[in-house]
Amino acid sequence: MSVVVGAVLAAVFPTRGARPRGRRPLLGFVSGVLAVLVVASASWVWAVGRSVWHTTAAAVDPGPVPSTVHEVAWTWEPPRGVELWNVLPTASGAVAVLDDGVIGLDTATGEERWHYRRPGTGVAANVTPDGKTVVLTFRITDYRLLGDGNRREALLALDAATGRVLGDGLVPPESPPLGASWTDAESWPDLYVGGLTADALITWPGTEELRSLGALDLRTGEMRWTADTDPDCRIPSGRTIWWLRTLPDTVLLPQLCSENGGETARITAFDADSGEHRWVHEQPVPGQRGYRWLVVAGHHAPFGHPRGAGRGNGERPNSPVVVVAWDGDSGHLVLDSATGEVLADGADHATGCGGLAHYTAETVAVLCPGEVEQTLRLEKRTLDGDAVAGVEIPTRLGFDTLGAEPLSTAEVDWLSLAGAGVAVWGYQTPDGQSRLEAYVAEWDGDVRTIALPDTGRSWTRLRSVPGAVLAYANESREVVGLR
User: Mean pLDDT, to the nearest integer, of 285-313?
Assistant: First the structure.
């Protein structure tokens, strides 16, 4: 959909207050940067009555995801006057999600690479599972564009490496991403972008029955395909966005289905390009209520409720496995995401370990209370539960001389790298000063700490991205790059 609406001006301004601080001189933000002044654009995205601040940049290679980290390499501050909502991994680094747009970061240096912002407009963002495209959504009410007087959501796709616009479109009014009606101004839900494949947004009618799915092309804004679902099946509970899972080439739908007077748990994998079935896994419902949760979990994606809810989620599901947690004591089901083959069934790695487990196609990593008092144990296991490696982490490491108590382990975030596990939590000294430290536990047994700048929040998140491990907190003023 393209409409020309007069002479529209999209003003481009540099961001302020976003200069990284590092231990070595950083490269200036000069090479390959393009600032575009758009006048009378043919795209409706530029014509919704708001200024747009947009720069692009040449692609750079930040390097691979680190196998371990040793120090704080840089810190980055968001521009003044906006809040940092999330930091999302991309194939070329990371994007910082602000309340009015996104900023692409060079994770090797902490420099801003590009930005797309709409001052005064609430914007949500997410990244496609392959990490190559950043997708933004924002609401528009322009009667000249919509004609029907209803509010609608706009979609904008940007190249994650350069910030270049790839395409735009409107979400069909009958298929909002949250599966809810937004015609009532008093009951608009928060913006959220979910259900992304490599090049499409998965949509569904705004009903609890979920009778069909559709794929909206991110570049053309056109509906690519629709597929009916079984009328005898339903989503487990709550909103569809809580259950639908996507890979670059696959859409996964868990359902509870009535059959011969009983109920079965069914997971259907749809081909992301055509909507046809790729595989179906079906079995009797374990326990009393069936599903507790389902994730597509890769080496750097935690198992558990996504912690990036709000203006962008945290799962990066370019993943070899699908993990299902059953309600009750039935453990985890691990499926090959390409074929649906059962890789493991019954082992429960998360209970008693903070509810998080990091899966690969062959192993799972967990962080649990240690065998010795006041320690945590980072452990790598086979999918069936056999121990492969383990490291004891003394939680008072460096605390004794201060006489300080660490915060609750519920406020610990952690991730698993190829060569180590990294955990971060804060504590307070007796005089009330806040401290934040990262604990790096090498799989060979070495443990060290890295002092971090205080984010001002008790809950600090970790993200493993190409070029760095990032530590940040929602609504904080800094993103910290570890290398």
Answer: 49
